[in-house]
Amino acid sequence: MIGIGYDVHQFAENRPLILGGVEIPHSHGLSGHSDADVLCHAIADAVLGAMGKPDIGYYFPPGEDFCKDICSLRILEKCRDLLAEENLKLINIDSTLIAEAPKVLPHREAMRQNIGTALGIPPERVGIKATTNETMGFVGRKEGIAAMAVAQVD
Ligand SMILES: Nc1ccn([C@@H]2O[C@H](COP(=O)(O)O)[C@@H](O)[C@H]2O)c(=O)n1
Ligand SMILES: C[C@@]1(CO)OP(=O)(O)OP(=O)(O)OC[C@H]1O
Question: Is position 131 annotated in a ligand binding site?
């Protein structure tokens, strides 16, 4: 079974930029009720989708106190628990970050490590790619970052 996930968060001042559980030095972070880790959110929805489960907001409702500033790696750990409950195996995930800035590829290995550990799969099975939006649209105007992901579950 496969699943797809997509998420977007807006840039904000005075917020850390957390992607794949890695704090990346940048002038702006992302706004959100959680730590706004757009990559982990897209991956969580892909894994949940592959399991035929409801989306991230079902398990981590926006606005709930327990979700305030939550580290989104905890969300991936919840996905790992759900996989175990259903006796399902996560084969791999692949993802793309769409961001005009900053460059994220220098942080790829650290992100793969964090995400793999949280999901219980080797980092080699965590695909992370990045692209700019060639200055077009909200990403191109540096208003935010988008992420998309797919997951395969057996
Ligand atoms: N936020 C980003 C965007 C891109 N990269 C890397 O740069 C390459 C070229 O991106 P283009 O959008 O100009 O094609 C891309 O393949 C990534 O390796 C990045 O690290 N961070
Ligand atoms: C995890 C949650 C919890 O509020 O994070 P948010 O920062 O609100 O991010 P979003 O991707 O808009 O929705 C997912 C939410 O469930």
Answer: yes
Residues with Cβ within 6 A of ligand 1? 99, 103-105, 130-132
Total number of domains constituting the chain: 1
SS3 state at 63: coil
pLDDT tens digits for range 40-67: 999 999 999 999 999 999 999 998 999 9
Q: Are 93 and 150 in contact (CB under 8 A)?
A: yes
Q: Of ligand 1's atoms, which has the minimum distance to the CA of residue 132?
A: 12
In angstroms, what is the span from residue 102 Cα to ligand 1's centroid? 9
ipTM here? 0.89
Ligand 2 atom with minimal separation from the 35 CA: 7
Residue of 8, 9, 33 to mutate, ligand 2, most atoms within 8 A of C-beta: 33
CATH of the domain at 141: 3.30.1330.50
Predicted TM-score (pTM) of this structure = 0.96
Structural domain boundaries, residue 43: 2-153
CA 101 to chain centre: 17
The two structure tokens encoding residue 151:
């997951």
